[in-house]
Specification:
370 residues; alpha+beta; Glutaredoxin; 2 domains; two-stranded antiparallel sheet; 14 helices; binds glutathione
Length: 370
């Protein structure tokens, strides 16, 4: 069978989710930059006209844009091989998938865009993904300018640099304590949660010159997990008797509860504020059924450790969070009690109620309002 073509780049956050999934699931792929005439005239239109990395193309010419849709496609085909079957682990893996890929943009963008040391690598990488006849927005200069603004819009203006750094450091220490005992978030093998978290960790935080040393200093086990997630073999040589499967009996390790509590500090207030902002947008704009979902629907204002932050609200977070909420709603009373107690312990309970007034679906490789 011909390999799947992955249009992506090593420095792209979301490409990291698809790439790692392919590697860990033995899917033959070739990664190339989205710059050819073929990409421009055949792949891009089939991707809904959206120049998003990752986008993949199969030998028959069919195309999937979006790292979540790509993972969904292969999970469907391989019997949900990376989704734990037990109740709490299933919910936690879906929740960590959202948090990893959508909730870590502040440290991922801060360590990339607020330090000039990163510039040579970024210029090199952006140079290699600049399309044919680029509009200004997709030239290297245009992207630099937009990304610096995006960094501020995501909640990292100068006055919050120290807070973003200290939250990240605390997170790395907690992840490190977890990976010291387990090769993956839910035990012995990767789940959807790991593929969400690898996105910011591989493309940005374990690669950019400013953030890589943080892992050398405070997160050796995290660094090794990043490597493990990008190698085809289990790569668990340093563990004595490593688990081969998820932790038994639907247990959530205490070290993972600590990680979730740490994430909750900004993920929960940000999610509640983004939900309000997006619902206000929906009430005001009432977008037509089938119209494309905007990337940013407004701004949410929320408090983190006594500081007031303002960050762009992205409806996509709720497209993923709804999967957690739907799983929860399908549970029996007894299971729901267990999950409620767990989420309460992790300070995550409020996100179950963060729901948009409209649903998000997909059409022609785009997210659309239902
Ligand atoms: N929800 C998408 C987000 C993809 C995305 O934003 N990718 C970035 C690179 S990491 C990009 O290509 N941005 C430009 C664009 O979307 O036009 C996914 O999960 O794949």
């Amino acid at each position: 069978m011909s390999p799947v073509i992955l249009y992506g780049s090593p420095f792209s956050l979301y490409s990291g989710r698809a790439r790692s999934y392919f590697i860990k699931n033995g899917i033959d792929y070739r990664e190339i930059a989205p710059v050819s005439k073929h990409y421009e005239y055949n792949v891009l239109p089939a991707a809904g006209g959206r120049r998003g990395m990752p986008t993949i193309e199969f030998a028959d010419g069919s195309v999937i844009r979006d790292s979540v849709a790509i993972v969904d496609h292969f999970e469907e085909a391989n019997g949900q091989a990376n989704s734990p079957l037990t109740t709490k682990q299933n919910i936690v893996s879906r929740l960590l998938d959202v948090i990893g890929a959508e909730g870590m943009l502040r440290p991922a963008m801060h360590y990339r865009w607020n330090f000039p040391e990163n510039e040579p690598l970024l210029r090199y990488q952006f140079g290699h993904i600049t399309p044919i006849d680029p509009a200004w927005e997709v030239t290297v200069e245009g992207r630099f300018s937009r990304m610096h603004q995006a960094c501020i819009d995501l909640g990292v203006p100068q006055e919050h640099h120290a807070l973003v750094e200290s939250l990240y450091l605390d997170l790395i220490r907690k992840l490190d304590a977890h990976f010291e005992n387990y090769p993956h978030l839910l035990g012995g093998r990767p789940s959807i949660a790991d593929f969400g978290l690898i996105a910011p960790m591989y493309g940005h935080l374990a690669r950019d010159i400013k953030s890589l040393p943080i892992l050398h200093e405070h997160g050796i086990w995290v660094l090794r997990w990043v490597e493990r997630m990008n190698r085809p073999e289990p790569d668990v040589g340093e563990y004595e008797n490593p688990l081969e499967d998820y932790v038994a009996n639907d247990e959530i390790p205490d070290t993972l509860v600590d990680v979730l509590k740490q994430f909750a500090i900004d993920f929960v207030p940000e999610t509640l504020a983004a939900c309000d902002a997006t619902n206000e947008f929906l009430a005001a704009e009432n977008p037509a059924v089938g119209s494309e979902v905007v990337r940013v629907s407004g701004f949410g204002t929320f408090e983190v450790k006594g500081s007031v932050m303002r960050a762009g609200a992205q409806p996509f977070r709720f497209y993923l969070l709804k999967r957690v909420q739907d799983l929860y709603e399908q549970l029996s009373e007894a299971d729901r009690r267990d999950v409620t107690a767990l989420l309460e312990q992790c300070d995550m309970l409020p996100v179950l109620e963060a729901k948009l007034t409209r649903e998000i679906g997909r059409a022609n490789n785009l997210e659309v309002w239902r």
